[in-house]
Design a protein that fits this description.
4 copies of one chain form a homotetramer. The first copy, chain A, has a two-stranded antiparallel ribbon with strand order 1-2. Chain A folds into 3 domains: 124 residues, Four Helix Bundle (Hemerythrin (Met), subunit A); 90 residues, Helix Hairpins; 34 residues, no CATH class. By secondary structure, chain A is mainly alpha-helical. Chain A is 68% helix and 1% strand. The interface between C and D is large, with 53 and 60 residues. Chains A, B, C, D: InterPro entries: Ion_trans_dom, VG_K_chnl, Volt_channel_dom_sf. Chains A, B, C, D: One of its GO terms (molecular function) is voltage-gated potassium channel activity.
Chain lengths: 277, 277, 277, 277
């Protein structure tokens, strides 16, 4: 889907190596890039540990600059060899690539390196682009498809959760706020409700009144059954995508058929040849 | 299902806009109402934060009165245009609508606005009435149906849980109460048992004796397998409602058939045409 | 399965009322008994709260004696009317019934009522015997059957868990014990491993060393996937018991067949008429 | 698969008893070995409790030496009777067997017995070798197969989790680190993200800023839906392995067929006789 002037051989070679992963060179590049990214993330992790940062200031800075140097070259090459420059520069990955080198240069003026970390870690997302083209493709497709299918239900369900935690939070606020600083205001109470309903249960905020503990008990038992719902949704979708083949019936347009059905169970007409899931 | 005197055009118009969502006007009204409700909930959240309440007292009060004003008008219009006034006023939503404006007027005499929050947040439930008529209808039906189907089993299961936590709580009370203030009485011990069995684990109450920790360990491993049961129930119901079509066999009355079955597997008689799930 | 001398009408009447639940009288008795049991449990809960016990000493004692009186009569009647006395007295419920009245009489000599609670709460288990004969019978059978089916796998799985927590606990003990009193000995470390792996996470014991936190992270991510296994087991069994009918093939003895199969998929021979699950 | 010189009867007898479990002697040996292993683990647990270790120093030491003696004999016998000595010595279990006796002898010079515990506990893994040959074989195979099948997806999923917790940790570090010592550096923040996402929720590190709590809320709700994915994966695989029979179609090589299919749903050719799952 990309057109080249027959002349620039190099550009095309680079493009295939940097942007594609189906050639030997492309795979190698991806692996090397991945290593550098992981290394850069580890580095910003270590830098964030104050004592280490003091102790190994010099090597850390050198590491920073090497990584920045490599990322910069990569970025320039990407822009150089990509056919549709605008499209890349303003693409999700394009922006991340740019942001991940920018701070280093800014930090010459303002020496805070703290905020590298986030942008760097975002580069880890590239892993998925690489996985896309790897032996995981079938699994990831199957996963993605099931999740996509259940997304709508999960979304609907989370509306319900959000409303519920708001109401529960408000109730607990009324019950506990007088005696319990932890429930000092509704947002905090809602935060508590989420912590409880998701069974995370930090324990930084806990009910102290009898009524509060009673309500909390109900919320927990509720959450215990509620946790079943998203699981049920995903499970059923996954099993479905195992059992169903995605062939559209040419007559009635029904899209779900048993894996070993030859005829549409809706209208009984012969199904086109199936691509097994 | 509602009868009008041909005269009052306006009433009917209003009714369709306020109570129905299938017209353009109705949809718009619902969205606007939703925005006001969400805004009112956010407001009562902010009010509950003491420092903000002090700082922005005036704007908050004004906001309050605007919302109360809007809700009051809405309430009056609802009563005005609904055919069966009694039915609406004493309906679940009717009562909530009333209660959500009442406190504001009371607060002229008694200035505590604290308890607005709950009633306001209950109005969020209207979202579901609106969703009911939206593109989520299929998903929500499917969810609701599955949950309804599994409700009985879940209820039965929660009996079991409640009995278990009572017994476990009593046991832990006997084991720990002497040395551990956290297990000072049985209700608290039961509360602990719920916190543990649901894997919430606040850590506000934890066993300190060796025996107590041993029992706790057993309870946790128990809870770990028990958490599987409600999930299993919901999952199986969801998958079932995928696999089954809800056609009643005209001969033997069996209500469950494979999605692609043409004949009842109970009595072998032809099934009526299916509405696909 | 119980034989009577034609003479003693009364005995038989009593037996049907007290031990069976299919007659009107039997149902009534069960409900009344249940109420008394629940009441007795609530009473021992309240007694366990020191301040209440001080305040309402007299009414509590009176309540105690009323309950003990009722339970004693019930116990005597049970022994009187049951055909096989030995069998009942040494049955699980028989022993509980006896133990739930014993302490009251002992407490005349030694006034500690603390340990009533457990035995009393055990009486709650009677609920299941009553449910057995109620409208929940189908659901409870289905649940019980599925759980029974998956019990063996769950058991096998919990062996695995127990071994794992032992090993993980031992490792964490070696890593943390020097600097962290929480991991003072292996049993405590194992307790921590269980708390972590089951995602309860009290936080009463937490790793402090970097290595400790790293291992903890791995354990958690492990637990996150492991929690899937028991759920998977139960879910699959439940779905199976939906999909399968429990008819034994008369030819090959295969016990699992699709709900709508007329012929054994093992040997192809006609199946006997199915009792739908 | 093991060849013996006809001469050494004893060796062969020993080999069958020690390494195999299908004879009466073999079963007995396994059970005895298991008891000794469990006992040894319990002993190192008790030793790790300081007060006990002081009190019962002598009996503990004696116990140690008895166990070491038994394990040493076992090890020698294993080497003596196994046909392929190298293979055993450098096998996983061979190394564990060796390491589990080594420390005792070293401890003559250096008296720390602390690190016995781990290696000892690793011997518990032998249980599985024994289970392999027991009545659990069918269940364990079914479990193992399902887990193996879903391993790839779970792995893919955990990549995703690891990347996510890194990003989330980095974000929270930026948000909280200034005011919250708990988020002092990125690794700790990542540790917190794992604790939260897996719903363990120790509460040793909790967000204090409003923004922090908001992000935490999102993470929890995320985790709540995400926990569904591995469960869905395992469930679907388990159900599949119930529904599918593992017969390879001789024509098209398709490996998945409905349990009661006689013909391949891919190419329609007759399937070879099935071994029921």
């Amino acid at each position: 889907m990309t057109s080249f002037k027959p002349s620039d051989e190099l550009k095309q070679k680079l493009y295939v190596i940097i942007f594609k992963s189906d050639t030997k060179g492309g795979k190698l590049f991806d692996v090397l890039l991945l290593i550098v990214i992981v290394f850069s993330v580890l580095l910003s992790m270590l830098e964030s540990i104050v004592e280490y940062d003091k102790q190994y200031l010099i090597p850390f800075r050198i590491g920073e600059w090497i990584i920045t140097f490599l990322f910069t070259i990569e970025y320039i090459l990407r822009i150089y060899c990509v056919p549709n420059k605008k499209k890349y520069i303003f693409s999700f990955y394009g922006i991340i690539d740019f942001l991940s080198i920018l701070p280093a240069f800014i930090s010459i003026l303002f020496s805070s390196t703290r905020y590298f970390s986030i942008i760097r870690s975002l580069r880890l997302l590239r892993i998925f682009r690489i996985l896309k083209l790897s032996r995981y493709v079938k699994e990831s497709n199957h996963l993605a498809e099931s999740i996509k299918r259940s997304a709508k239900k999960i979304l609907l369900f989370s509306y319900f959760i959000i409303i519920m935690v708001t109401i529960l939070g408000a109730i607990m606020y009324v019950v506990e706020s007088k005696v319990n600083p932890g429930f000092g205001n509704i947002p905090e109470s809602v935060y508590w409700a989420v912590v409880t309903l998701t069974t995370v249960g930090y324990g930084d905020i806990t009910p102290v009144t009898f009524l509060g503990q009673l309500i909390a008990t109900v919320i927990m038992l509720l959450g215990y059954s509620i946790i079943a719902v998203p699981t049920g949704i995903v499970s059923s979708e996954m099993i479905r995508s195992h059992r169903m083949k995605d062939v559209v019936c040419l007559k009635c347009g029904n899209q779900e058929h048993d894996r070993n059905a030859f005829y549409c169970h809706q209208c009984g007409s012969r199904l086109p040849i199936s691509k097994s899931p």
